[in-house]
């Protein structure tokens, strides 16, 4: 029991004192995930909107593929990216294996299908409900799509948060392509895994607490803004 409480107190002390190693791992984790999330949203949100609002041959097959990719095993993604970025792979000449760039690529492969798939479903549901109305009003397609996006903005934020959660909590893929190298590719999840396996729980607990606080904070901010704007709209 003493070891249990000692680990918790030491973890809290590491957070309060802004331990150098803790801060380094924290910022690298968010740097990798935020870049991967931004690129995934830049591609996935327009792609999902396009698939939801357009009809063309092969559309259902493409949506099916994206939905299937949403459940990709992270270790398989890590292996796939590793093979392609290794010296004998087609992109080995880039020399980015075991760097943050490789970790970003692995996270994009994991996050992009989630963003695109959820966006498609969200916008498609709105189109089923309002398409007849917009057609009767002869509303331009661009205006219609803008209306869908504005109406679905909170649901789309939820999709983005799902991508963020996937990226920030990822272990298997990033450890394969990043190598968990100290001061270079060591992120929160891989550090937690390593420190726990060594039996040194203080740093692992500190990072776990930070992950939990970050997740709760993001969700509280989104929830507050959502209901605050709704109250203003309805005059409460």
CATH-derived architecture: Orthogonal Bundle
Anisotropy-based shape? flat
**Percent range of helical residues:** over 70%
The CATH H-level superfamily is MetI-like
Estimate nothing, just give the exact number of structural domains: 1
The CATH topology comes to MetI-like fold
* Assembly state of the chains shown: single chain
Proportion of β residues?
under 5%
Uncertain residue ranges: none
Distance between the termini: 50 Å
- According to CATH, what is the class? Mainly Alpha
**What's the helix count?**
10
SSE class: mainly alpha
Number of strands: 0
Structure notes:
The chain is mostly helical and 236 residues long. The chain has a single domain, classed as MetI-like fold (Orthogonal Bundle). It has ten helices and no strands. The protein is flat, with a radius of gyration of 21 Å.
Which terms would index this structure?
236 residues; mainly alpha; MetI-like fold; flat
Blueprint of the fold:
Elements: H1 2-16, H2 20-53, H3 59-69, H4 74-85, H5 100-136, H6 141-151, H7 153-168, H8 172-178, H9 188-198, H10 201-234
Helix pairs in contact: 1-10, 2-5, 2-7, 3-5, 4-5, 4-8, 5-6, 5-7, 5-8, 7-10, 9-10
